[in-house]
Amino acid sequence: MTKTDPSRASVTLKDVAALVGVTSAAASMALAGSSRISQKTREAVKKAADDLGYVPSAAGRALRNQRAGAIALIVPNTSKHVFGHSYFMHVLTGMSTEANIRDLQVVLSTTTEQAGDVAAYDRVVRSRSADGAIVTSAAVTDSNLEDLVASGLPVVLIGNFPYLPRAVTVGIDDVAAGREITEHLLAQHGCTRLVHVTGPLDHQTGIDRRDGFLAAMDEAGLGDQAVIVEGDFSEEAGRAAVETLLDEGAVFDGIVFANDDMAFGGLEALTARDIPVPGGVPIVGFDDFGLSRVTTPGITTMHTPAEEMAALASQRLFDLIEGVENVPARSELPVRLVARASCGCLPG
Amino acid sequence: MTKTDPSRASVTLKDVAALVGVTSAAASMALAGSSRISQKTREAVKKAADDLGYVPSAAGRALRNQRAGAIALIVPNTSKHVFGHSYFMHVLTGMSTEANIRDLQVVLSTTTEQAGDVAAYDRVVRSRSADGAIVTSAAVTDSNLEDLVASGLPVVLIGNFPYLPRAVTVGIDDVAAGREITEHLLAQHGCTRLVHVTGPLDHQTGIDRRDGFLAAMDEAGLGDQAVIVEGDFSEEAGRAAVETLLDEGAVFDGIVFANDDMAFGGLEALTARDIPVPGGVPIVGFDDFGLSRVTTPGITTMHTPAEEMAALASQRLFDLIEGVENVPARSELPVRLVARASCGCLPG
DNA sequence: CTGAAAGCGCTTACAG
DNA sequence: CTGAAAGCGCTTACAG
Predict the structure, then answer these.
(1) Which residues are within 7 Å of strand D by their Cβ atom?
(2) Cα separations in angstroms, B222 against B211, B225, B226
């Protein structure tokens, strides 16, 4: 069957070395392929390692190399609610792909307390459970992030952090993307009185997408018509925004939601009030993490390449860990408008 | 600001000990709260550790304690496609919650190759990157799993593995659940000619849900009417199953899909052929990982408590790692039928 | 060229 | 009672 020893006790380098009759130092070099060790010994050691099912101890290596061989994803408690399951799974997929290539582990660090977001990061890196970390979705108000970046520990942020110019970040151009999808409703669907339901305005994503919306409205000479309703990325916020608008008798001919979850909540609210989408009110969302494809109507959205962002962030992180010079501080990936039925592009 | 030293070099026990003027052994005991160390020294050491921002080295501890302080989730490459993003995120959430309570890390191990599923697991545990692992969604045909369980390494399987009686597993009663949701269509909606679109039949989940369907049909005296179409849990399989049925002119008055993804694919195919759901054909799915709530109509389904399963699996794993005797080999969590519009229970 | 010590950071068993 | 060595598993710098 398998060659691995099924016994519980773990096989160390010493066991391998003893089987061949060399020191563990020699065995180590042999497995590393050092030319210092004769080819014959090298092969004997490799065979012995194979036969015994030897796998190097992560702890032994980490201690000796001062390198954990792992990268961490920090998921602050709050952001799990804000960004949702699918976002983080895309991020984990991107990280895992890159980590696998380099034979590194991925450790997941979720925060329990509200306040301890950075403490969580700090613990992971200072305990050297991971050689660096990817942090995503931090709030603008989170001042600790600044100390973190200044500390010089390897960290890559996913998102946009204009107030942290020295941080290495990977993201998209939310302003341009927000403008583009707004222009879509204006130019392709003849909307003139648009509402924007924002994300949380203590997150740069929320701010930028709103600014993109306002820029598009201004450029179209419709700045006066622009209505802003503050949301928080939750489905419930989208629903509440629509209900409030309708209750107040607001006049509008389209809604730009800052993400798909809110667009879905809004869609349900509109449908519940017998306002057809897109016939009565065309709407658009943002993200395309999965939800927007499966609703009826499908939600027109800006595809945010979360997995690719995470993959690139991982590469940047590896560079930081390895001490590569001149790692680009900012990388932006392209987004792409995905036209579906909610704006009127596709048949319902 | 923070008390932590922002310098890159990490603080070791030796640094803490030096600051107080004791040996690192004494500092270790002081931090552990040993009564061997005078209260005064204990406090001084704790203060010094605090001031320096000392965090114990994971590698040092792991090597000394022969314990990684981490548990792993193994995600075989194939199962990512089979079970989808949301399932694994539920599992990770459940694991993280339990791991946080015990101050353990969660490491994520995704397999690259097709064949190397167990090798991946093996590497993680043998390298002692993790003290044990949770493995989910393994195929019945994966004979390596048997060796794995026999090896005595701490592992908990999520799912049902009747051919591995010695394995510690956490799951649901898929047969009973499959029967229950089938009975719902029979008893509540008067269906008599039901189709079942199965999951992959090399996974126990696929087999069990099918058997539950057949049992319900038999008990209702409708065994002759039961039609089985083999699927694989993918949306595309659900779509293809419906198209084939319609093309062949099959006669049926309801469909039991073995999961929600297939139900969604089937729903789209029915809608595309102008067959209203539930008016033309009532359908039900299985899982309730997120999708079934957001479709139109919402899909009636059996709620599978993935997060709770993962939490319980984690607890079982901790017990195995700690050598607790008589860890229950099998735990089953209750499922719950969630009635939505696709069967006709709720208004569209 | 090669053998074997030293040391990464930690904690406990041992010596005094 | 307390000081300090030993050793977890590994790899490299050093001694011979």
Answers:
(1) A 10, 12-14, 24-25, 28-29, 31-32, 54, 56-57, 59-61, 63-65; B 22-23, 25-26, 36, 38, 63-64, 66
(2) 14, 5, 7
A274-304, pLDDT tens digit by residue? 999 999 999 999 999 999 999 999 999 999 9
Instruction: Provide φ and ψ at A169, rounded to 5°.
Output: -135, 150
**CB proximity list for B292: less than 8 A, separation 6 or greater:** B260, B263, B264, B285, B298, B299, B300, B301, B338, B340
List phi, psi (to 5°) of B302.
-100, 120
CA atoms within 13 A on the CB side of B339: 11
DSSP string of B26-68? HHHHHHHT-TTS-HHHHHHHHHHHHHHT----HHHHHHHHT--
CA distance linking residue A127 with residue B105, whole number of Å: 11
Q: What is the pLDDT of residues A33-80, one digit of tens each?
A: 998 999 999 999 999 999 999 999 999 999 999 999 999 998 876 666
A250-279, pLDDT tens digit by residue?
Answer: 999 999 999 999 999 999 999 999 999 999
| B70-172+307-335 against B174-303: fold identical | yes
Predicted confidence (pLDDT) per residue in B296-336, tens digit: 999 999 999 999 999 999 999 999 999 999 999 999 999 99
- The domain ranges of chain B are 13-56, 70-172+307-335, 174-303
Residue of chain A whose Cα is closest to the Cα of B111: A100
Spanning CA of B24 to C1' of C1, the rounded length in angstroms is 39
User: DSSP per residue over A295-318, as a string?
Assistant: SSSPPBEEEP-HHHHHHHHHHHHH
Spatial separation of the C-alpha atoms in residues A333 and A119, rounded to whole Å: 30
The CATH T-level fold of domain B70-172+307-335 is Rossmann fold (3.40.50)
Please, are residues A31 and A74 in contact by the beta-carbon 8 Å criterion?
Answer: no
A–B CB contacts, 8 A cutoff, strictly below = 151
Which of A63, A80, A126 is facing B55, going by the closest CB pair?
Answer: A126
Q: Do B107 and A109 touch (CB under 8 A)?
A: no
Distance CA B273, CA B245 (A): 12
Domain over A174-304 is classified CATH 3.40.50.2300? yes
For A230-251, what is the HEC assignment? CCCCCHHHHHHHHHHHHHCCCC
Give the architecture (CATH level 2) of B174-303.
3-Layer(aba) Sandwich (3.40)
